[in-house]
Fold:
Amino acid sequence: MMDPHPTDLVGRALARIVAATPTADVVDIGGGSGTRAVPLALAGCRVVVVDASTDALASLARRADEAGVSDRITALQADADQLDAVLPPASADLVLYHHVVQDVDDPERSLAAAAAVLRVGGHLSVLVPGRLSAVLGEALGGRYASALAMLAAGPGDDRRYDVPSLRALMERAGVVVESVRGVGVVAALSGSRARPGDEPEIAELEERLGAHPVLGQIAGDLHGVGLSPAR
Structure:
């Protein structure tokens, strides 16, 4: 069973997804050093990590070995633009596509290829930078021209999204969107002012604010969860 930190909203969402299928087949695209892969493997999942960085995959191997889950993690060196060449279709119960949109040439094509890896009923977890959080950050830092430029660019144009544009991106990839919520609303507003012992209150605030239809949009990240429909 996964046991993410109370303030790790994405980890908690993943834990709920895999709870029903502890031995799920998971693909972590851009999974780097195994921050998500190792806890999933410890929970009993079989995980394939796809990453272009040999250094990151070497770190993954060390972390998996230290955790005793090397037998449940497979590393593939490949770009996120080449998923259809390295991953068989309909082979996974859960696909993670976290902070990948910034690094691919064609986000729509890449995400559609990621969704194609899912079995019917499988879940796609997408994490992207929040557009409005970046705009506010520039404005609060006195970089008004940059903030205006971000607003003028439109959702997704600079690989930053708001809730409607992330939902649209996922729908075009072929999944049924179950939820899109903010992650890191409190962090975006308070910076590093949290004190020891504040974690329970922060966790509850993040949970509530992330689901708020307005305030969730100013989160540092947006997390979307989609379901692969019958084909």
Q: What stands out?
A: The beta strands are 25-29, 46-51, 73-77, 92-98, 118-129, 176-183, 221-227. The mean pLDDT is 92. The longest helix spans residues 54-67.
